[in-house]
């Protein structure tokens, strides 16, 4: 070993500069805030779950004392609301997803840049419209406009269970509520899907076009597979909005409590959120606890759907 190497090893290490010390403190503070923010989300969810469980126990106890079993009465009360909530949200997604994908593709791949920018801005503004405005618009203007369509569907497609029954004006049925929910979730699904489509690798699209693929073939083989996970995530965001929507459904839907698939009939369905909103002002005691129990059911239902969505996105990601 040379004398120079020995001198370099024996030389004292210079003390850390003031800037590096401040940088370490800043990193520690930022890391602590990030971890604390993440834990705050879990604590908030846990607090909500504990509150809903605790406040719904009086209804469980009262139901058990009344019927001998807590399951029968509570399930009999909650299941029709769950059925109406899921059915309305599912129909809304069936309407909104294809339209949202079409709008997102038009903005990201077909529209001129100026038109795409303005259209995207308008779509984002639709997401900021309050739900009570959608409820007023749907109940006063949209429902009368849909009546001829409902009579047409009932006349020519009444053999399908969804369009069976005898519709009568005003058409404050589940179909009208689902259409309004579709309009409400459409900007959410469109905005997320558009951003996902814009992230498609440009080289892959150009390679497909260079190999002779048409515009539609490029979208079908490159853009849509790449954005599959994003489409699922956007749809689940829209589904979460539809499941928890209150005012629009309350202002349009004539409530009922059945398991009927006839979405054109009035007074057959109701949603959990709309039922809570309509009865919470006058409820007290066990009745309020029963409403809290339905809120717990909606909380668990939303959690399960989000977990399934995360699983689907995780499986879709590596393939795309």
Automatic annotation (TrEMBL):
| GO BP annotations listed | phosphate ion transport
Under the heading InterPro entries, the entry gives: MetI-like (IPR000515), MetI-like_sf (IPR035906), Phosphate_PstC (IPR011864), Phosphate_Transport_Permease (IPR051124)
A Pfam family this chain is assigned to: BPD_transp_1
Which keywords label this protein? Cell membrane, Membrane, Phosphate transport, Transmembrane, Transmembrane helix, Transport
Question: Which residue windows are transmembrane per the record?
Answer: 29-52, 81-107, 119-143, 174-193, 290-313
Chain segments carrying region Disordered: 1-23
SUPFAM superfamilies named in the record:
MetI-like
Q: How does it sit in the membrane?
A: Multi-pass membrane protein
The record's GO molecular-function terms, alphabetically, read: phosphate transmembrane transporter activity
GO (cellular component) term, any one: plasma membrane
Question: Which residue range or ranges hold the ABC transmembrane type-1 domain?
Answer: 82-309
Q: Where in the cell is it found?
A: Cell membrane
Protein role: Part of the binding-protein-dependent transport system for phosphate; probably responsible for the translocation of the substrate across the membrane.
Q: What family, per the record?
A: Belongs to the binding-protein-dependent transport system permease family. CysTW subfamily.
Q: Any idea what this protein is called?
A: Phosphate transport system permease protein
């Amino acid at each position: 070993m040379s004398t120079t190497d020995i001198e370099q090893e024996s030389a004292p290490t210079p003390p850390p500069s003031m800037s590096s010390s401040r940088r370490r403190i800043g990193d520690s503070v930022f890391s602590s805030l990030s971890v604390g923010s993440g834990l705050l989300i879990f604590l908030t969810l846990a607090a909500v779950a504990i509150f809903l469980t605790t406040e719904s126990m009086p209804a469980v106890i009262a139901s058990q004392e009344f019927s001998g079993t807590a399951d029968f009465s509570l399930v009999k009360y909650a299941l029709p609301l769950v059925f109406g909530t899921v059915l309305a949200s599912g129909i809304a997604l069936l309407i909104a997803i294809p339209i949202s994908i079409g709008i997102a593709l038009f903005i990201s791949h077909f529209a001129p840049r100026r038109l795409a920018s303005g259209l995207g801005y308008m779509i984002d503004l639709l997401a900021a419209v309050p739900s009570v405005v959608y409820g007023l618009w749907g109940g006063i203007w949209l429902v009368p406009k849909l009546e001829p369509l409902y009579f047409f569907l009932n006349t020519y497609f009444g053999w399908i269970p969804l369009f069976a029954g005898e519709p009568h004006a005003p058409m404050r049925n589940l179909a009208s509520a689902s259409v309004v929910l579709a309009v409400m979730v459409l900007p959410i699904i469109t905005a997320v899907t558009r951003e996902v489509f814009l992230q498609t690798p440009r080289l892959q699209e150009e390679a497909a076009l260079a190999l002779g693929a048409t515009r539609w073939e490029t979208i079908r083989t490159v853009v849509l597979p790449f954005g599959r996970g994003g489409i699922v995530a956007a749809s689940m965001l829209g589904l979460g909005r539809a499941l928890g929507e209150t005012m629009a459904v309350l202002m349009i839907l004539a409530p009922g409590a059945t398991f009927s698939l006839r979405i054109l009939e009035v007074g057959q369905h109701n949603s959990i959120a709309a039922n809570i909103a309509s009865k919470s002002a006058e409820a007290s005691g066990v009745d309020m606890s029963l409403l809290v129990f339905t809120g717990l059911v909606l909380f668990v239902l939303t959690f399960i759907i989000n977990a399934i969505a995360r699983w689907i996105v995780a499986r879709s990601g590596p393939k795309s």
